[in-house]
Fold this sequence. Notes:
Helices cover 42% and strands 21% of the residues. By secondary structure, it is an alpha/beta fold. Helix 5 (120-135) crosses helix 6 (151-163) and helix 7 (181-194) packs parallel to helix 8.
Amino acid sequence: MALLEARGLTVSYGGLHANDEIDLDCHAGKLVGLIGPNGAGKTTFIDAITGFTPVSTGTVTFDGQDLAGIGPDKRAQMGLTRTFQSLELFEDLTVRDNLMAAAERPKWHSFLTDIALPGRNERQYVEQVEWAMDMMKLTDRADTMPSDLSHGQRKLVSVARALAARPKLVLLDEPAAGLDTAESQLLGQHLRDFLDYDMSLFLIDHDMGLVLNVCDYIYVLDFGRVIAHGTAAEVRADPAVIAAYLGDSAGESQAREGAAASAARAPVAADSTMTESESDQ
Length: 281
């Protein structure tokens, strides 16, 4: 069973299907990508998975549990977190405090732990925050206000904040938007590193070089429907993807760069779990 499973997921607004019977799997320890033209329904899919928009029909299962009726806060506590295109940083808090606000997951018995073992809960969260900042190379910006950061650094803070709680799965909504090529490549390196820490990632982005380079498995949306899925090489060569997204010339250079980079590293998507995933579609 995949860590995240969407089956027949449909999100409708009136007579319009923003997502139309989507079947999608995210396996534990993998980095799965979702691409598609503007308006294809990518962010709507993340909104539905994380509970920010209602699912019209279909099911979403996370870590073996049906998410129907579970709100965004409870899903986050289960280990399902996300980033937002608009970043949504707390501008009046330092980088460290932004991460601390996301890392803390108080439970009903937390106050008892604080009484019996003062500082234990806080130490745990501090360690998680320091780890996330170190992974995203933000330690030297820990006491900086978000308004004093570059756009690229703000993007890294947004990702680090989603990771600070050490979730099981993080859904990243266009984390490379507005980054230059070097910043995007650096972000991709960071994302692969997190897979070594018992996390899984789901990436939406328009940077084809990034997606084709770092993702183990990729789904392609067009008009709310999955029109293709597979490894980077398979998606890159799919005629439906070329027609709907890449075009005959647009995006070709980025796609070639990503395909070359994917070929240069070990093809992790060819393992048994991905084979099972493909057969399930």
